[in-house]
Design goal:
about 500 residues; mainly beta; five-stranded mixed sheet; 32 strands; globular
């Protein structure tokens, strides 16, 4: 049976965390009727994602007889495995999303977002350029590297300059990501497009029975909500309430595209999901109730699949799921069962090869337990004070807003620490640079299934207890960050830094 665990309080819902143009089912309707959507009321990237009786659509079927929507495109690939080199440049772009006028955007090597970077363990020589008129960076979110290679606020790439970190990749296969991380500018720069996905691979996915054909049965999906005005222009004009709760948009973009449909083969498909939104928390489920088979969390594979009805994904989090698309129809990926809206429509394409037709019994190795290895306990408080209501400060960690010149914690290299993180007012996604951790409890309960693997980001609606291992050094000139991953909160001061030595 799928693991059913959806709790409104634990999911991060708070007043002001409004839903994105929702479709709210009524009790009198049948299951199929509940998920039929009127185009005028449904303005997300799945704007055509109405579900016919039977629960889905086929690529060439009658659903698209009047107008065929565009196929969802995958980001271009940079495969570093043969060369051991990575070259990317932040550049100014111009993008039109809804058929409206083009707006200024930014990306790495392209106008909006960046390529999917394929990596393997071993040396990696990176060259990161910047043609923008302001500093940017590339933070390798989820990568376990030294502090001077982390790409955080201490490693800005100034206009016209090149950053050349000589990195060593050494971690389990996983889906991680990269984004700019300039203090005070992270929210705007990521919103404009400075982000992308990384696949770390060991080349053994076929042995695991996992889909691995990029863009066919292995889909990379960057989930972002963005705000558009009546003329179809993407805008970022955060109000006081936006800064308080984080900026929420009114449309969905998937891989920077609106209204596209993901074509899938008639078999098992792997979805690599990244919540690249500034603040929105997704509670993902399928319109026809089929399970989401969780295969991997932030830090890599689980020992075996876990079937979920609902998958929660906070900003910065990633998850890999396997979906069985065999059959006559494909569903719509939805969010927030209590007030549902569409995220992405799928459609079967019989011309695509169905390489994998059954779910694997075993995926990864047993997860190492850190219980009993911890040497110190720290209390971390994510604070929202009254100053923000006046348009000023108020965002802090342990009562102190971020200061680039202050080291908040000193951690011993090779140690394991227990951190108890507490949130106030709203649920905060909490991220630690340069480490992975295991979640021990959430509000006194065992962790949700999506928090049972290795993590680097976790949603904290009240109190969350973790065990973190610190394996990579960071000095005070290149300190690691720990912060809320609601980007408006991070920029406003809900961030600290620590050394590892």
């Amino acid at each position: 049976m799928p693991h059913r665990r959806f709790d409104r309080e634990r999911s991060g819902f708070r007043s002001g965390n409004f839903m994105l143009l929702p479709f709210a089912p009524t009790a009198e309707k049948t299951k199929d009727q509940r998920y039929n959507m009127n185009r005028r009321d449904f303005l997300t990237s799945a704007a055509r994602a109405f579900v016919v009786a039977g629960g889905g659509s086929a690529w060439a079927g009658s659903v698209f007889a009047a107008e065929t929507p565009p196929r969802l495109a995958m980001p271009p690939i940079i495969d570093t495995r043969a060369s051991g080199k990575l070259a990317m440049t932040a550049k100014v772009g111009s993008s039109s999303f809804l058929g409206g006028p083009a707006v200024p955007t930014a990306g790495y090597n392209q106008s909006y977002l960046g390529p999917t970077v394929i990596m393997q363990n071993g040396p990696l020589a990176a060259e990161i350029g910047n043609t923008l008129d302001e500093p940017v960076s590339v933070h390798w979110h989820g990568m376990k590297v030294k502090g001077d290679h982390d790409g955080g606020p201490h490693q800005p790439v100034h206009p016209g300059k090149i950053w050349k970190p000589d990195m060593q990749v050494n971690q389990d296969p996983s889906t991680i990501w990269y984004h700019s991380h300039i203090h005070g500018r992270t929210a705007q720069q990521v919103y404009n497009g400075l982000a992308g996905v990384i696949h770390i691979t060991d080349g053994r996915d076929d042995d695991r029975g996992l889909p691995s054909a990029y863009g066919i049965d292995d889909l990379t999906l960057v989930l972002q909500d963005r705000s558009f005005d009546r003329n179809g222009r993407m805008v970022y004009e955060p109000s006081m309430m936006d800064r308080m709760h984080g900026f929420h948009g009114n449309r969905m973009l998937i891989n920077g595209q609106s209204g596209a449909v993901a074509a899938v083969p008639n078999g098992i498909v792997r979805l690599r999901l990244l919540n690249g939104s500034n603040a929105r928390i997704y509670n993902l489920f399928f319109s026809d109730g089929r399970p989401l088979h969780l295969a991997a969390t932030d830090g890599g594979y689980l020992p075996q699949l876990v079937a979920l009805d609902v998958l929660q994904l906070a900003p910065g989090e990633r998850a890999e799921i396997l979906v069985d698309f065999s059959g006559a129809n494909a569903p719509v990926l939805m969010s927030d069962p209590n007030q549902a809206y569409g995220v992405l429509e799928f459609a079967l394409d019989e011309t695509l090869p169905a390489r994998i037709t059954s779910l694997p019994d075993k995926i990864g190795s047993p997860l190492e337990e850190l219980v009993g290895l911890d040497t110190q306990t720290r209390m971390i408080s994510l604070d929202m004070g009254m100053g923000m209501m006046m348009g000023g400060g108020g965002f802090a960690i342990n009562g102190q807003p971020f200061d680039m010149d202050r080291i908040d914690l000193k951690v011993a290299l090779g140690s394991v620490e227990r951190w108890i993180i507490r949130s106030s007012m709203v649920a905060h996604p909490f991220h630690i640079h340069g480490v992975q951790f295991r979640v021990l409890s959430e509000d006194g309960l065992p962790p949700r299934p999506e928090c049972t693997g290795w993590k680097d980001t976790v949603l904290v609606p009240g109190e969350t207890e973790i065990l973190a291992r610190f394996e990579h050094p960071a000095d005070k000139e290149n300190a690691f960050m720990f912060h809320c991953h609601i980007l408006e909160h991070e920029d406003a001061g809900m961030m600290g830094q620590f050394t590892v030595s």
